[in-house]
Amino acid sequence: MMRDPIDTLLRLRRLAAEGAVRDLAVCLAAEAAAEEAVSRIDASIAAEEAEATRLDADDVAVEMFGRWLRRARQERAGAAAARDRAEAETTRARAVLGAARAAVAGVEAELTRRAEDARTADLRREQAAIDEHAGRPRE
Q1: Sequence-separated (6 or more) residues with CB below 8 Å from residue 6
Q2: Are 51 and 68 in contact (CB under 8 A)?
Q3: Which three-class secondary structure state does DSSP give residue 53?
């Protein structure tokens, strides 16, 4: 017996949705790592700034902090850009997952409609058989 193509379609839609869930998980992990990198740099800047602005800090420490801060700010800008890209990719992955789930729901709705149509047809056949039997003369 030939398999109904809609069963295959449902299976493919579910596989696509599962793949979208995995992709979203990867994006969320990348986004978390990027956010952690930004936070780590921010904490490092705050700590170094506190050290350089101590009352007993000499001019050399302040000057070294100034040079270091330029590099740290560049590093932070790069990390923030990576975080923004990761957030955008996560947003895209969420949209793909939403579309995949909607596709699964659409196929499932069609299967439900077909099942209801088949049940209605069965009930009509049963009623026709009852009507035919009731209309026969008794012997």
Answers
A1: 107, 110, 111, 114
A2: no
A3: coil
From the list 49, 41, 44, the residue with the least C-alpha distance to 81 is: 41
Q: How far apart are CA 128 and CA 139, in angstroms?
A: 21
Cβ 76 vs Cβ 27: under 8 Å: no
Tens digits of residue pLDDT in 68-115: 999 999 999 999 999 999 999 999 999 999 999 999 999 999 999 999
pLDDT digits (tens, 9 = 90+) for 31-53: 999 999 999 999 999 999 888 88
Tell me what pLDDT residue 138 has. 60
Computed on alpha carbons and rounded to an integer, the radius of gyration of the chain in Å comes to: 33
| CA 24 – CA 90 distance, rounded (Å) | 6
